[in-house]
Amino acid sequence: MNNQCQFIKPDKTQCKSHPIKGEGFCFTHHPEYKQKHKEAVLRGGKSPKKHYGVNEVITVRRSEDVVILIEKTINDLRQNKISVKMANSIALLSGVAMRAFEQHKKDEVDDFISGKGDYPY
Ligand SMILES: [Zn+2]
After folding, report:
1. Are 62 and 20 part of one and the same domain?
2. DSSP assignment letter at 75
3. pLDDT above 90 (res 91)
């Protein structure tokens, strides 16, 4: 019993994948499964993880924006729309943003005290 796909690739070597049970070709090279394979590839490409955030631009200018972002991230993670890795990156960057806001506020207070700026509140 031949346990190798019979497809011959353009470089004249034989495909090394296992054929579908009882068939001569693997899922990729079986003529009958060609359309199904195409659809599977397309579905993979459309998975929310890969396309998450591409069309969604968010603004993070205030601590309130960070709260909204974290809330959205928690929901996206719970619904498996984003990876744990992405959620961790967002959490890390949110912390950076919060520290930047704090520093900005301190700078404004310093400027006010030294007479360079208006009262920041
Ligand atoms: Zn094959």
Report:
1. no
2. H
3. yes
